[in-house]
Amino acid sequence: QLHVEVLSGIQAFLHWEVPKFKRSINVHFCRSAYYLCVSHTNASNFILRRLLVSGLTAKRDEAYVALSLCPANHTDVRETLSNMKGNQSKYKLLDADGVLRARDINRLRARLAYHRKCGSGDAGQLEVELADLKARHAVGNAAAHVAALRSDIRSLLAQGAG
């Protein structure tokens, strides 16, 4: 969203409607756009259920798919939602390997923060590992992006484009 006021209004509404999740609902700015983040699964599920009960029509099917999310079907739910949204941000979505790499990076960040807080000498080594993981993640994402582009180009050529 380009206008923070829209998301701030939604955030205020959600804070009023579900005050117990107030700390989980925040507006952030990233790469020249604003987005609303609901940071806890319980808060997301509660809000989605309230929207469905209140008569949500747009993205209703997507909401049901999101509510079915559990650790065992994470990859399938991501794939299903990706297919339901069309081509919007198609090449930005992480593939399954990218999700695993991102989890590893987040775990290592948490370990690094702990070691920095404790003043451990391991922090320097963890910083090197983190930089390596980030670099491998960037390469993996680029490779997945190129593979997706090639696949789309082949598909278009097979349909007669060109």
Task: Summarize the structure in words.
The chain is mainly alpha-helical and 162 residues long. It has a two-stranded antiparallel ribbon with strand order 1-2. The mean pLDDT is 89.
Radius of gyration: 20 Å
Q: What is the terminal-to-terminal distance?
A: 34 Å
Q: What's the total number of strands?
A: 2
The helicity comes to 55-70%
The average pLDDT is: 89
Low-pLDDT sequence parts: none
Strand order of the largest sheet: 1-2
> How do the SSEs run, as a string of H and E?
HEEHHHHH
The backbone outline, from C-alpha atoms, is globular
Main beta-sheet annotation: 2 strands, antiparallel
Structural class: mainly alpha
Number of helices: 6
| Beta content | 5-15%
How do the helices and strands line up, and which of them pair or pack?
Blueprint: H1 4-17, E1 25-30, E2 33-38, H2 41-53, H3 60-67, H4 74-84, H5 96-118, H6 123-158
Antiparallel strand pairs: 1-2
Helix pairs in contact: 2-3, 5-6
Quick overview:
With 162 residues, the chain is mainly alpha-helical. Helices cover 65% and strands 7% of the residues. The protein has helices at residues 4-17, 41-53, 60-67, 74-84, 96-118, 123-158; strands at 25-30, 33-38.
Keyword list:
162 residues, 6 helices, two-stranded antiparallel ribbon, mainly alpha, 2 strands, globular
